[in-house]
Design goal:
binds magnesium ion, binds adenosine-5'-triphosphate, 16 helices, 417 residues
Length: 417
């Protein structure tokens, strides 16, 4: 194949930014000239791989450690040509696989007989690339290795905390956005808010975020092709470091959300964050129920009013009938005032459980935060921020960076952390 046509074919689809991380290091073993040229052009045209060296013999002596001849650290990918000597190529692959199991092995060959492919896979190769090596097959194979490396580098398993109002206007969005910004900023935690409102969610507005194109339900509808790149196009980013997947702005389209799709989407998201806060609409819709089944905790936000408290009791009864473990439920009393008409003791007696948290009533500050779109800068000295910072440390967060507060001890266990 002439190099010009290879270059042309390498420049076709712009899908290379699957990773913003460092390029993957590649070592070639006994590659023929054309394959090596394809690799060189691929490395030049897309910053996904960096060619480290080419070794022109299969080094299979037992006395020689594979890591010695591949170099340290071991490369991310080793591409072995199987055509020159199949037996030695297999032996070399086995040696590398046992000495450097984290190195991905690609076999390259012009022979596509199934038993040869199986043999290469048995020697530890995860990919079998056919000559002439095309851009698409190389790109897909490299992308798979990149994806696995990212998974290894991001071993997060987020705590998913769902927040639902006992009725509308109890303060869910105010609390979720402020708590999220604190977790991201003061505690340096990788934090995401998902606005699960089926329409007209407020999280983006409260965070002053206007630059976004897609909403959460579109992500759910596309969950079969979910990867880091697709997710990135759904994220709105706040200056605190907090990320948000917003709700739809209107309710003009019919959605096809399959049962289980929300849970699957959260399985994917969990691996990428330390905390996920979910801003839910009040009520027990199918989406909310699936979320409640899948979250680690349901924080029901209420105010000290008879109608809201009655709803909390009804919700808990209903969810218990649906076999959702009662330990998962927490009650957060918002707009708490010491001299309220309904006392704390009365509230706890009505609910049949202790209040998990109380957030003080501070209307002027909360409204200022909403209007400014910056929950922590404006509220840094307010009682609500101090209170939510304590809540964040209660969530088991270890202090980081400039945060002076010592780690909370008493309530950590409530989250099982
Ligand atoms: N701790 C608080 N002290 C005083 N006012 C508050 C507090 N928390 C929230 N509010 C006020 O309550 C109102 C409703 O808050 P918010 O929009 O956060 O509620 P919500 O539960 O998200 O409502 P919705 O059901 O519409 O989504 C806002 O005007 C907000 O300023
Ligand atoms: Mg809201």
């Amino acid at each position: 194949m002439n190099p010009m046509s290879i270059r042309d074919s390498l420049n076709t689809t712009p899908r290379e930014n699957f990773s913003t991380n460092e390029p993957l290091s590649v070592v070639g073993v006994c590659l023929d000239e054309e394959t090596w040229t394809v690799l060189k052009l691929f490395a030049e045209s897309a910053p996904l791989i960096r060619l480290r060296s080419h070794i022109s013999e299969y080094r299979v002596k037992e006395t020689e450690s594979a890591t010695d001849w591949l170099g340290t650290p071991s490369p991310d990918i080793c591409i072995i040509d199987f055509d020159r000597d199949r037996r030695k190529a297999s032996q070399a692959a086995e040696n590398i696989h046992s000495a450097a199991p984290e190195t991905a092995l690609f076999a390259v060959s012009s022979d596509s007989q199934p038993d040869l492919i199986i043999q290469a896979m048995r020697s530890g190769c995860s990919e079998y690339l056919l000559k002439p090596m095309g851009r698409e097959q190389l790109l897909n194979a490299v992308a798979r290795v990149g994806g696995r490396r990212r998974e290894r580098l991001q071993p997060f398993k987020a705590q998913v905390l769902a927040f639902m109002g006992a009725k509308g206007g109890c303060g869910v969005t105010s609390l979720v956005t402020q708590l999220g910004a604190l977790l991201a900023n003061s505690f340096s935690k990788k934090t995401l808010i998902v606005d699960l409102h089926p329409d007209f969610g407020d999280s983006a507005l409260y965070l002053g975020l206007t630059k976004y194109r897609y909403h959460f339900f579109e992500l759910v509808e596309n969950n079969d092709r979910l990867d880091a790149e697709l997710l990135s196009s759904f994220l709105a980013r706040h200056s605190s470091g907090l990320e948000l997947i917003p709700a739809p702005e209107g309710n003009d389209t019919t959605r096809r959300i399959l049962p289980g799709a929300i849970a699957q989407t959260f399985d994917f998201l969990r691996m990428r964050y330390e905390y996920i806060l979910v801003d839910m609409a009040p009520g027990l819709s199918d989406e909310n129920l699936e979320m409640i089944r899948h979250c680690d905790q349901l924080q029901v936000v209420t105010v000290a009013e008879v109608s809201a408290l009655r709803n909390v009791v009804r919700h808990f009864d209903y969810l218990t009938r649906k076999e959702i473990p009662r330990e998962r439920f927490r009650v957060v009393l918002n707009r708490h005032q010491k001299r309220a008409l309904i006392s704390e003791a009365e509230i706890e007696k009505t609910l049949g459980q202790k209040l998990f948290w109380k957030v003080p009533n501070q209307y002027a500050h909360v409204v200022k935060a909403i209007n400014g779109g910056d929950p922590i800068a404006l509220l840094s000295s307010s009682e609500v921020t101090r209170n939510l910072r304590d809540l964040a440390s209660t969530l088991g967060v270890k202090t980081a960076g400039g945060e002076k507060k010592k780690e909370s001890s008493g309530l950590r266990g409530l989250l099982g952390r």
